[in-house]
Amino acid sequence: MDTEIRLVKVEKEVDALQNLVERNSRALEDLRSIMDRRFSEEHAWAERQFAELRREMNTNFRWMLGIMLTGFTAILGILGRIGGLY
């Protein structure tokens, strides 16, 4: 009789542990899906920011190139004036 009581207690504990494992598995799956969604949102946000940065860098590069060409042309003009080309 004593063995049967012990066996029933062990079976109850095993059932409780199985339920706990199942709940933890579901919780992990939910967490994984939430994290995947959040990482996807963060990735999309980062991509938008990098696209904006690329556009701004292109604009700044054009301005810098224009300023450099203007300065180079001015220096050539000054050298031509000093050299008596015109």
Structure, described:
This protein is an all-alpha fold and 86 residues long. It has one helix at residues 2-83. The protein is rod-shaped, with a radius of gyration of 36 Å. The termini are far apart. The mean pLDDT is 95.
Q: Would you kindly provide a brief summary of this structure?
A:
The chain is an all-alpha fold and 86 residues long.
The helix fraction, in percent, is over 70%
Can you summarize the main beta sheet?
none
User: Rg, please?
Assistant: 36 Å
Q: What fraction of the residues are assigned to beta strands by DSSP?
A: under 5%
Mean pLDDT: 95
Number of H/I helices: 1
Structural class estimated from helices and strands: mainly alpha
- SSE run: H
User: Termini separation (Å)?
Assistant: 121 Å
Low-confidence stretches: none
Say how many strands there are: 0
**What is the overall shape?**
rod-shaped
